[in-house]
Amino acid sequence: MSTIHQILPSLVYGDAISNHVMEMWRLVRQKELHTRIYANHIDPRYRVAATDYRSYEDRPGNVLIYHYSTGSAITPFVRALKHSRVVIYYHNITPAHFLWDVNPMRARELQQGREELWQLSSLPSLTHAMAGSEYNRLELLDAGFQNVDVVPYIIDLGRLDASARSAQRIRQVKAKGAYTLLFVGRVVPNKCQHDLVHLTRYYHQLIDPKIQLWIAGGFSEASGYVAKLRVLITHYGLDANIKLTGTLGTDGDLAALYQMADAFVCMSEHEGFCIPLIEAMHFGKPVLAYASTSVPFTMGEAGILFREKRFDMVAETLDRLRADTDLRSRVIEGQRQRIKAFDLKTTQTKLMQVLDRLRPE
């Protein structure tokens, strides 16, 4: 096998899928194989690795990994290829109903993606597929795919090396003595940041008014939802307690937030994997997460999962973790064992084993 290329709609700086694509690109290059990334929208910082998808040359012997998460012009392009061997890497598709009210255009793309997934399962050049989680694998099987391997995300936790400057800047705005919660992810309805606001209100009113919540993630996909979120925060009188960072500038800024946080809380109702769960466990922060979609597969037996959005129950659990150092230590130790499954060398080896099986006969 002389070439392994990747294709996706957008290569965006800091995006989870894009980070994974870049890690795959670096790994394949280390194996001295020819590789290139093809996309429609490319962040200028990635131009060394990527080019416009329309420049892709369809040749026998090419393996083309299609990172699939939405409807786009890439799908008909891939379906029209005659010579390349296509491999789907499925990142899951957010259900369109989450976005209809705040971003109808994006919702249509997601709905299109669901419909076209079935078409890809019968693609003649497709003999294999990869999924980022067991949850995603099951969705592919339901859509008619066969020979699906779970290949977890290549997560280079070493990149999260907080600079002293980042850490100092974050500490300067942290309220003294505050119990600090963190969630990391795009600010969109399916991630349910509004439920984090409700949780903070409960904790603020009934447990400790010094509670602080940091919501780290970009606003571009659902500005209407962000506006509603800000209104809710102000309505509850929590402007001083809740911080929305927007897109972070560096990995150092993100690492500084993880270091500052006392606990990581996820209320999301749709995840294909949720890398921030792994990042939070890496930083030794107890994780409390709503057990939806892929979250239980990612967490395994680690952390604290809840199946009802009982803000009183979650808040009281957080308070117990805060007071009971023995419980907190046990939770963190369980998480430390869990993230061994996502060790960088382990996931890199798994990916290359799958790619080696795609060598042309």
Low confidence ranges: none
N-to-C CA distance: 9 Å
Oligomeric state of the chains present here: single chain
Q: Tell me the structural class.
A: alpha/beta
Task: Indicate the proportion of strand residues.
Answer: 15-25%
Q: Architecture of the largest domain, according to CATH?
A: 3-Layer(aba) Sandwich
**The CATH topology of the largest domain, please?**
Rossmann fold
Tell me the number of strands.
Answer: 13
**Strand-and-helix sequence, N→C?**
EHEEEHEHEHEHEHEHEHEHEHEHHH
Radius of gyration: 21 Å
The number of distinct helices, counting runs of at least 4 residues, comes to 13
State the shape: globular
Give the strand line-up of the largest sheet: 3-2-1-4-5-6-7
Determine the CATH superfamily of the largest domain: Glycogen Phosphorylase B
Please identify the top-level CATH class of the largest domain: Alpha Beta
Tally of distinct domains:
2
Q: Determine the mean pLDDT.
A: 92
Helix content: 40-55%
What characterizes the major β-sheet?
7 strands, parallel
Describe the structure concisely:
This protein has 13 helices and 13 strands.
List keywords for this structure.
alpha/beta; 13 helices; 361 residues; 18% strand; Rossmann fold
What would your notes on this structure say?
- The chain is of the alpha/beta class and 361 residues long.
- It has two domains: 3-151, Glycogen Phosphorylase B (Rossmann fold, 3-Layer(aba) Sandwich); 160-341, Rossmann fold (3-Layer(aba) Sandwich), CATH 3.40.50.2000.
- Helix content is 41%, strand content 18%.
- The strands form two sheets. A seven-stranded parallel β-sheet has the order 3-2-1-4-5-6-7, sandwiched between helices. It has a six-stranded parallel β-sheet with strand order 10-9-8-11-12-13, with helices on both faces.
- The termini are close together.
- The mean pLDDT is 92.
